């Protein structure tokens, strides 16, 4: 695991500066674009003296060598079960996962576990496409965050034409109330395409809710393809969102493992040192790997550090071969207590990790067909 604050801050500035400079060259509103460039430069300068943020987890290992959930049956989850959100609810691990049948339509399944690795599924999905913005394509890629007694589900609604970031709420994780599209496609300061992958910060900052998300940036000079990069928005009610930046808050990096796609993973966690966001990056060959970025907990727009190398990559055959090859895509993240603190983790499944230690469990889609789990020790708090 390599976190390089200064280098990643420098690259962030360079990429954002180029983004804004191209806006100057292409846009008639050059004064606005130039002011954006000046703002980016000032933010970068402020980031330089920040110390490297400590991560709340150590190196990742696979918690299981085989998938913990696989396609089954001949109907709604026969082709793929992947991209899971996992939370602790009423003393159990609860998973919402994307499932596809032979037609390719996506639904959200529900499964429970007492140890975080062995899950029992409900026979029917808990969310199926019904709204016009979901019809025929489905409901995809869940992420969960809780405020008060209410769970907030961000997901992608896909109608075979557009993919858009949507919201639903529930108190039991089974019965869901749709709130509609919260970030429409083809809108935004820099987004020119679909919107996906809403990762909501667990607490208000400066009186507002914050959410990292995926948008599509226009192709750059000399390139023939668009790139998916990370945006940031804020809200006072979790329903109406305002974009917080004029350029991607976490841009792609040419020549690196996240050159083509930079997509939020699970909802971030807050530490004393920052907002820790696991994200999914893809290179020019669309190999997906996991990485981490840390933002200022007083200003979610300000990047403090970023992985120079992936935390986790596809290695197992079932991570390399499936509906989409060479993909590990993290969407779930849970802090599991060791057996000394009340939760007994499955014996024999982790690769040498002590069961009496607290550890983070990371849940990921593999090759858009299976679900796997990784683990990392949580450092002991110093008091």
Concise description?
11% of the residues lie in helices and 39% in strands. By secondary structure, it is mostly beta strands. Strand 4 and strand 5 form a beta hairpin.
Can you characterise this structure?
By secondary structure, the protein is mainly β. It has one domain (57-377): Tachylectin-2, Chain A. It has helices at 5-26, 30-47, 317-320; strands spanning 61-62, 80-89, 92-100, 106-113, 120-121, 138-147, 150-158, 163-170, 177-183, 196-200, 209-217, 227-235, 242-243, 261-264, 269-271, 274-282, 288-296, 299-306, 328-336, 359-366, 370-377. Strands 14, 15, 16, 17 and 18 form a 5-stranded antiparallel β-sheet that branches. A 4-stranded antiparallel β-sheet has the order 1-21-20-19. The protein has a 4-stranded antiparallel β-sheet with strand order 2-3-4-5, with no helix packed on it. A hairpin with a 3-residue loop joins strand 20 (359-366) and strand 21 (370-377). Helix 1 (5-26) packs antiparallel against helix 2 (30-47). It starts with a helix and ends in a 6-residue tail after the last strand.
